[in-house]
Amino acid sequence: MSPSRTLPTLTQAEVASHNSADSCYVTMGTRVFDVTDFVDSHPGGGELVLEYAGQDVTKILKDELSHTHSEAAYDVLEDSFIGFVATNKVIDTATKSTKPDSIVPLPPSKEGLKELKENGSANSLPVYASTGMSTEDDLNKETDVVNDYKTHKFLDLNKPLLMQIWRGGFSKEFYLEQVHRPRHYKGGESAPLFGNFLEPLSKTAWWVVPMVWVPPVAYGTYLASKGFNNIAGEAAFWFLGLFLWTLVEYILHRFLFHLDKWLPDNRVALTLHFLLHGIHHYLPMDKYRLVMPPTLFVVLATPFWKLAHAVFYWDWHVATAVFCGGIFGYICYDLTHYFLHHRTLPSYWRQLKKYHLQHHFMDYENGFGVTSRFWDCIFGTQLAPAPKTV
Questions:
Q1: CA distance linking residue 177 with residue 174, whole number of Å
Q2: What is the pLDDT of residues 332-351, one digit of tens each?
Q3: What span, in angstroms and rounded, lies between the C-alpha atoms of 371 and 385?
Q4: CATH T-level assignment (fold) for domain 1-129
């Protein structure tokens, strides 16, 4: 994966503001490095680093009269690489563009260079090329529906979305580019999906999840208990199912919800993708299209019921205990997912909220864990930390 998909492009003013021992950035060309941790350990003294804080260091690194720099010095810089730099107007143009990747990071493509001829307004925040956003606060900024449609020629949020996807004739590349640029509709209301009597069926309140699924989990756990001599035996398999859910959560999110590379380039595939997960990235703060509708969950859960009984074929009660633990894990996942988007949370969940919302505004190609980062760490898909701000 190209780093330009995951690292931000900062304005020159933002880079220049990091000019102290508490936060020290330097640049080489269009690349930005956070050398804060290196200030005190620089062989030539921290004062020399701070002299060039917030500035380009290409020339001074090559100036042997000032200080000879070894390959190790360049290795330190590479380890501190956090993003790219561009002017305010370049970043503003990229934000408004339908193809921001053609503009930032610099140098732009031929197509991006053409767009850069337009004037843009100043914007001092980092802009992530793949989403056109800077921070999680942008997820709650109401979209100018008329201007958005005029600019991007994708979906009119005031009209039913489903048939626009079906009839739009969008290419896979354009669809994926646009559906991962979040919009926010009328302060958090649900944009029309069907536009007819089916509309209520497309919405699910968060409390439906425990109301529908806790009773079957409790009953299944009770039935499973009849095959165990003691509660500890059932609990061991039940918690095994709960742990396995975290892996299932990761696999589904990464390889089903984000199967972007393998998505067929036709309207059937794009429409199914939009209904399954695309709409959540397109309208991430829509509280009624966030948790999974019960009917969809039945479809997704049925193969796992059969898989549990195939793996633990020797004992129906063991398989059922594992499955019930897994379904309870799903309940926790969906509620956690909802609260990460829509509630103020205690410390641990605040960090989880920050991490998950970065998946939306910063890098949708990483950060697939919702209830924890564990499998992201194991499989190397953990989100890079957002750059520090002053």
A1: 5
A2: 999 999 999 998 888 888 88
A3: 18
A4: Flavocytochrome B2; Chain A, domain 1 (3.10.120)
Q: Per-domain residue ranges for the chain? A: 1-129, 203-379
| Residues of the binding site for heme | 42, 69
Contact 358, 366 (CB under 8 A): no
231 CB-contact burial (10 Å; exposed 0-12 / middle 13-18 / buried 19+): exposed
pTM of this prediction exceeds 0.90: no
Exposed, middle or buried by CB within 10 Å (0-12, 13-18, 19+), for 366? buried
Show binding-site residues.
Answer: 42, 69, 253, 258, 277, 280-281, 337, 341, 356, 359-360
pLDDT digits (tens, 9 = 90+) for 211-266: 999 999 999 999 999 999 999 999 999 999 999 999 999 999 999 999 998 999 99
Q: Which residues are annotated as a binding site for Zn(2+)?
A: 253, 258, 277, 280-281, 337, 341, 356, 359-360
